[in-house]
Amino acid sequence: MKKLFRFSSLALALLCLLVPTIGFAQTSSTTGALNGTVTDNSGGVLPGVTVTVTSPNLQGTRTVVTDAQGQYILPLLPAGSYHAEFALSGIKSQVREGVQIETQRQTRLDVPMTLAVSDTVTVTASQVVVDPTQTTTQQTFKEDHLKYASIGSAGRSYQTVLGQAAGVAGGSNPQVAGSNLGQNTYLVDGLNTSDPVTHTFSPNLAFDAIQEVSIQTFGKDAEFGKASGGTINVITKSGGNRFSGSADYRYNDPDFLQNGSKKRPTGIAYYGATPTGTLLRFDKSVQTAKSIQPQATLGGPIVRDRLWFFGATAKPKTTQQAANVNGFQPGVRAFTGWNTLGKQTFTPIENQTLSLRYFNSHAAITNSQFSSFYRPEADSLQTQHSNGFSLGYDAIISSRWLANVSIGHSPASLEVLPMSGNLDTPGITDAGTSIRSGNFTNHQGRTSYRNELVASTTYYMERWGTHAFKVGTNLDKTSFTSFNNATGNPSLIAGYDPSFCSAAFGFPAGSTCVATQTFVNGVPTLINLSVLNPGSTVAAKGTSFFFQDQWNPIPQLTLRLGVRDDRQSWTSQLPIPTFHLLQPRIGAAYDVLNNGNSIIHAYGGKIMDENQLTLPSFGVQQPTGAQAFIFNAATGKYQYSPANSSFFTSGEVYANDLKPTFSNEYSLGYTQRLFKNTSLDITGEYKKTKNIFEDYCGILATGGLDACVVTNFPGFDAGISNPLRQDYRAITSKLESRPTSNSNVIVSWTHAKSRGTVEYTQNAGTDFDYYPAHFTNRYGYLTDDARDRVKIDGYYRFPWDITLGGNFYWDSGIPWSVTQNAPLNAAAGTALPYGTYFIEPRGDRRLPHLSQLDLQLQKDFRVGQMKFGLIGTVLNALDKETGTAINGNAGTRAKVDPTTGRVFIDPNQQTGANRLAATFGQYTTFQRPRRYEVGVRFEF
Questions:
Q1: Residues 702/721, Cβ–Cβ less than 8 Å
Q2: Residue 722 CB-half CA count within 13 A
Q3: Which residues have C-beta within 8 Å of that of residue 556, sequence separation ≥ 6?
Q4: Secondary structure (DSSP) of 779-810
Q5: Is residue 419 classed exposed, middle or buried when 0-12, 13-18 and 19+ CB atoms within 10 A define those classes?
Q6: How far apart are CA 326 and CA 333, in angstroms?
Q7: Within this chain, do residues 230 and 144 fall inside the same structural domain, yes or no?
Q8: What is the structure's pLDDT at 3?
Q9: What is the pLDDT of residues 112-141, one digit of tens each?
Q10: Last-in-domain residue among 216, 236, 256
């Protein structure tokens, strides 16, 4: 709490400095805006019209008067549906119902008023927001879409909702627009909640606590940084002027599952048996799957229009089991969690709002590896916990001036250890089959926190057109205390000699050794000895400043001119260069007919990624490395193998010229409102990522390992130029429609190419440790590459309170790669360097086309202000069973056709130590067949 108090004091001091000097912006990271022009029936502008808006999500009312040009703007509006009234004494008033406000968007609403005394005219406004000033590619999922188009309990999380957006691939931590899963930023109510260690999502939230989810992919203003992938912003609910709440319960178990298709060729193996073919059937009797998902919310007024409260809680519990594809049944993965949220919203003075939020998310996960390659005794238990405290302040200082300040404190912890809790039994990895047995081979734990201050202020000015100048800062401090050790007492390994753990073999004095074993096709081969290290702490500080001008030199043209300056410094035991990058960004939007219906938009900019705290942890001066001892079958003992050993180092070295990773991004697109409630956008996108970094070791002339260096240029001593690459090209088409006030559909088609040399990396993988072995065939198609993806998501509310929701997904097939673990040469007593090798060009093979349709039907019953619903869900309604992953490990003796470069299976290499991995080329996971889920829902 001391850290939070210091941050609060700094926020208030900064606000005092900002308020007298600079001012106003139309939107913030947690709000939207309404603007437009009021005209008379001849098209002339009408000054002096009073515009008043109200909403269940707004405390009090907001009022503004049109200026001399008939224009008005209402900033800082919470997302939701609004009632807008336009009044001028002596003439007919106009009312617009259902005006949709989205976070970080301006909703344009031009209103003609008839110069005659008459009753008020009420019109239902357009339901699709087309912002003619934006160059950002953004998808916003509003409350009704979240409620009715998030299908099944697995779809009811903000992480899975992201999968409905164009350009998004993968699972809960998605790959967005060609970036890897560590290049996203996750905001909750505008504050960064990304895990500071892995840069993936951190908190889970009760789904019914979410008001809106938005994701920006391309074209970000200077306000948004630290992510060249997706910027995800989750806006939580705030209560209201009337008490409301919900209770939701979703359930499925094995009785709701369907077995795999019985239309299989004879002799094909089933899940639950040793595989003998390439097609496996889902058998619900051995593939446990169960889900229980209760949650509840309650919100309302403490003081009407002044002080609201909101609370939510959820207790998810799921169980799942990986497939038996290697002749044994993996353990059951069980996830049990609690997610709670509390929030208060306070408007002590008109147009000035304070919000206080707290969330708590924790879980325990048994058999957390969830893999067919881990025997039950070799799996792990994972526990995780995250909290978040935040305080936000939004203020309209004057008609031209706006200020925003938010502070947050987000501590978290995680531990992974063997399921048994036994840290002594050595674990075994079979290099021939990739199967783990004996025990889980790792014990790690950590605590971390992120403190953040975000402040901005904007000013609206009319000179050479109109300007909305916005400046701000983002101050960020993260910390990471961790330990990460192997498990296994080497004295329990037959043939082990205690003298191995000594200075004679390079171990520091007083070391406690831990051991893992390597087998090849069931035969003991290696012991790897490493040191048991204590915990260590590293930290980072980030300082960001940005300037943004939304300039309209003429009414039809919007120029978004911005620059962002990011600086990141590190606290570690070895020096790391400070990261610093100036990032210019330019966007242009041209409203062809000046009516918000036809917009050409373009963007070019540079975006720096926020590196996770694994980077400074590499510099911690603890003994790292492993000494290897090869088994001698003749003597039954182990002997030292320098060629397989990595000599101990005390922290990795950082290249003096190490630079931060960033992306250059460009887009050009066209948005057209086709009908009143339908819009279409087609955008071409290009992204090239630079200054990726990895650790590079090289091999000494003696055959041992060189000191590793974290660098942007691995292989520099071999004259290799730019081996670390990542690029993305796409054409994205998106159609959004609300045919009626009771429906919504989002359709997208993405045609893309995603290539690179690394997938998600924490910058110390084995990808580029040694030249040339780790460099060959590295550049190719990444796992998010599918030439075409089609998504259709939406709902329709029929009469009699019946709602049908659906999600449809199709892709043209994602790539898979043929790899090989470091093969041993037992006769020579040596091995090639450790790691994984690409023995065909990366991503050179493709999985089949994948499609899935999920449907949900809800019937509501109303009693007064209360609503009770019955929900039925069918997942994979078309009962597809397409393979979704293949074992690409070709084993220890893969054969390569010299003509085609393709790996093939040599029948003469199938026995003894030379046989291939038994499951090479076989599917390891499939779509689960059709399955069902039921639910009940209560709302008031």
A1: no
A2: 8
A3: 590, 591, 592, 594
A4: SEE-TT--SEEEEEEEEEEETTTEEEEEEEEE
A5: buried
A6: 18
A7: yes
A8: 52
A9: 987 766 666 666 666 678 889 999 999 999
A10: 236
